[in-house]
Amino acid sequence: MHADFHDWTGLRSCFADDLTVHFPGVTGGESREIAADDFVARWKRYLSRFESTQHLSTNHLVAGDDNGATCQTYFQTQYYRPATNGGGFWTVGGHYEFDFRRTEDRWNITAFVVTPLWTSGNKHLHELAVEQADTNEGR
């Protein structure tokens, strides 16, 4: 919910200082390491291009021990941005996989994989948001 409410400090608190991210089907390519501050800054630029977003996750499968864990879950994310051509909604469904590491006082996400399985609605909203986030235009 931190991302949907644009609570970037709260979102950052979920992550270890460095994490591995992989977005097959979205950005393609291989997994890569990124500083959590940079990852959150990218999400902020991207998600701020929408009037609203809603990230839902269900059917959590968690396994681990005292120091580390993994969680697999289905997701559905809806993005809304008023649009004049193609509609204002874009929805993505798929699954997430998270790796967690325990520290003295909390669990932090150390790896994040997003695998989309389907989309519906106006996919051009995504393309527009990426373009504007890359050039820092728009909202």
From TrEMBL:
<keyword id="KW-0614">Plasmid</keyword>
<protein>
    <submittedName>
        <fullName>Nuclear transport factor 2 family protein</fullName>
    </submittedName>
</protein>
<dbReference type="InterPro" id="IPR032710">
    <property type="entry name" value="NTF2-like_dom_sf"/>
</dbReference>
<dbReference type="Pfam" id="PF13577">
    <property type="entry name" value="SnoaL_4"/>
</dbReference>
<dbReference type="InterPro" id="IPR037401">
    <property type="entry name" value="SnoaL-like"/>
</dbReference>
<feature type="domain" description="SnoaL-like">
    <location>
        <begin position="2"/>
        <end position="111"/>
    </location>
</feature>
